[in-house]
Amino acid sequence: MALADLALSRSRLHKIGDDRATPGLLERVLGEPSTVILRVLDGRARLRDGDGPPVLHLLGGDEAVGLLDRLGGPAAAAAGGADPLAGPVPVLLGRFPEGGPRAGAAVVALLGGPDEGPDGTVGGTTARGRWSDLREVGALLDDTDAGALTEAVALEHWHRTHRRCPRCGGPTRPSAAGHERVCDADGSTHHPRHDPAVIMTVSGPDDRLLLGHQGRWPEGRFSAFAGFVEPGESLEQAVARELWEEAGVRVSAAEYLGSQPWPFPASLMLAFHVTTEDEHARPDGTEITETRWFTREGLADAVAGGEVTLPPSVSVARRLVERWFGTEIRQEGVWR
Ligand SMILES: [Zn+2]
Q1: Contact at 8 Å (CB) between 177 and 20?
Q2: What's the CA-to-centroid distance between 201 and ligand 1, angstroms?
Q3: pLDDT at res. 126
Q4: What digits encode the pLDDT tens for the residues 22-42?
Q5: Domains present along the chain, CATH in parentheses
Q6: Distance 95 CA to ligand 1 centre (A)
Q7: In angstroms, what is the span from residue 184 Cα to ligand 1's centroid?
């Protein structure tokens, strides 16, 4: 059974329908009265005031006009503000689907840039209202908000770290409604990149689950094994190599279970469950300092007693553990 409804693999915005290459598209969209703006600073977005599940504070109407005015108007904001190298970078994320609230309205993310929050305050942390990050609220937001924030956080990091051309070192500028960057010096176009990583749980011949503890983690944290896919390597090869390196177990079978973007800063997590005939594990002693086999009863007791902390619900790792366990696992301790 594949992993369904992964927290950060949800999206409801229509990404098609606007040709991103159309000249003036962002300026026109920012001028549409129904357009809402998602301001993201350092991976954080503002939440709506009030009790209940978190909801993104999307700026519309007078709030959106006020923010655009501070950036010099829709044309200047569409061009990336007064200093396109500094931003904020505007990105057309998509439009709300027909038949729901805000149907057809566009969502434009304003990413990074001068340290000014949507109400004129600095840095997000001192702004009115509550700002939060994707790790904290990603599993609690609705599908539309979760998808929009995941993409915005990923693109904020990419734009911030790709202001220079990798070919000639010249400045690059956003294009294609924020989905590419262009170097005017040599005409090259650069696309957002992300790095594939495999993540896997392992069960042994007696169906116990093998989890690992990293030396840099607080005591008691246990999680799935994970690592980046190396150049020239298939996903299956990466799974086998990582498990052998980190835990000293060999793969008998590996089942692909799904994927989730993990923009911290730029990973795409590809999830597997592995079975092994090996009964003994050997932590590598550097990254993984402890491996432990769990029965379901043993894991439940260890989590309930606070001896073991599992990764947060927003992660693929937690969902992989729960898939093996059979149900959702509740825990008091928070892993952030
Ligand atoms: Zn260049």
Answers
A1: yes
A2: 42
A3: 45
A4: 999 999 999 999 999 999 998
A5: 25-161 (3.90.79), 195-325 (3.90.79.10)
A6: 32
A7: 7
